What we know:
Layout: H1 2-7, H2 30-42, E1 47-50, E2 53-56, H3 69-75, H4 87-101, E3 105-109, H5 117-131, H6 140-160, E4 161-162, E5 170-171, E6 174-182, E7 187-195, H7 213-220, H8 225-231, H9 253-272, H10 277-293, E8 298-299, E9 325-326, H11 329-339, H12 343-351, E10 352-356, E11 363-367, H13 370-400, E12 409-417, H14 429-459, H15 473-494, H16 501-512, H17 516-519, E13 522-523, E14 537-538
Parallel strand pairs: 3-12
Antiparallel strand pairs: 1-2, 4-5, 6-7, 6-12, 8-9, 10-11, 13-14
Amino acid sequence: VRKLRATHPDPRPSPVAMAADCTALRVLDENTIVSNLEERYAQSKVYTFTTNVLLAVNPYQVIPALYTAEAKTQYLGRHLTQNEPHPYAIADTVYRKMKAGGVNQAVMVSGESGAGKTETAKILMDYLAWVSTKTRNTRQDGHSIQARVISANPILEAFGNAQTVRNKNSSRFGKFNQMRFNQHGDLVGAQINTYLLESSRAVHHGEGERNYHIFYLLLSGELADHERTSLQLSAEHRILSPKEAQFPRAPSEEQCRSDKSRFREIREALDALEISRQEQMSIFEVLAGLLHLGDVSFSGLRAKPLGESNTTNRDRGARTPGMAEVSNRTTLELAARMLGFAPEELEECLTYRRTQADGRSSFTRSELEVPQAKHTVQALIKIVYSRLFRKVVGVINDHCYDETVAESHRGRIGILDIYGFERFLVNSFEQLCINMANERLNEFFLEQVLRAEQELYKREALRWQEVEVPSSQPVLDTIRYTFRLLSDTSRLVARKHQLTEAKFCKDVFEKIADKPEQRKILRRPKRQESASGDGFVIT
């Protein structure tokens, strides 16, 4: 709110007293809305309605009285406006609409990084799980399913959230939670669909950030002696250090206590989902294997002479001097054991490339140089972590939804929790996709709420002053079209076509030139943006 006030100062006196619904303000513009949010925030009223849209200002502190069982009871079966604005009011409304009308419902949670989206989604899910047990005499298994659904949240946060510069618990993936109910309104299961996991974070992150929470929780958590001995973990694994540093900084005592407590919570959540300790240990072994894999080092005896081919003979033992060779084989063997690879096969995967010519069944093996081998390690870590994440989500889905009752479910309530918009000093391709998803959701919100409301006023012939709603659709279309050209170019490069970045940029300009809306926002970079002048800028 203070940041909003700083960027939108209002020289006028406050026109009205604060209102629980912004539409009740006498003057409805950006300044009065910000003033209203600020006054409510000062009284620990962090939620405000604008018709059926709930605005939330992150208090960055726990307000226990807001989320008690008594608070839930106040919203049970009540109209949206009968109580103070709250996620419980939204959750109760969609539940009653789903149950009475038999129409599936959806709630979209969006905002910048650190706005409190993940917590809001958990509050919604907690209420929906609770309210489904209050409508009738629910069987005991209903409470069991409720416990499983709620237990999934800390597990997902551990594997999919990380500390960024702006947010200590930033979701690095998008998720769509579907809560399923039978004809009586009882919760019979839940399913999670995940999107765009930031896999690059598993191998590097910026200063002041951290890798995924689960790695640190595993290092600090309480494990049985034989478990810790088997995993052979240390505090100096390479992938836990910032990109510019050689080793990670030692965590503070407070951070260690927090990580230890959260690891205990993770194990309790896994137990609640009835995931056996043997299955849990298998997951921990994969995580430890990735930590050890990131510590594998390579050496080359000498630089490859100019013009010398790096294509090897098929003798596994023959090595060309200067090509990548594992220098700490003990670490490689440890990583291989954890990940279920044969050490020899893992070494070959990291130090050789296998290529297959078109139309031929045989492969050619080529030795890799040290930088190429390091990139191969990073690619393998990203692939394995992504697959582990999908596996964990799949296990959660298996334990939160019983296929035998699939036919009995009558309605679904979906909760979309997408990661927030962020801009780092160095932004990855994944971050671009994340920000695009946010922008598209914002466009969807404008379409469904603001533009649809204006169309309704026109149809009803009500007095209405047309409000021009800004659209980012041309920017989204331009980026999407650029992605399509990049995909085509990548396929041609894979087929040995000689293409350059300059040629790709030229194609972008030429093929977008006949699209007026997109041509307006595409320009060549200024000298301070690109020393060579190559590239393009979408504004």
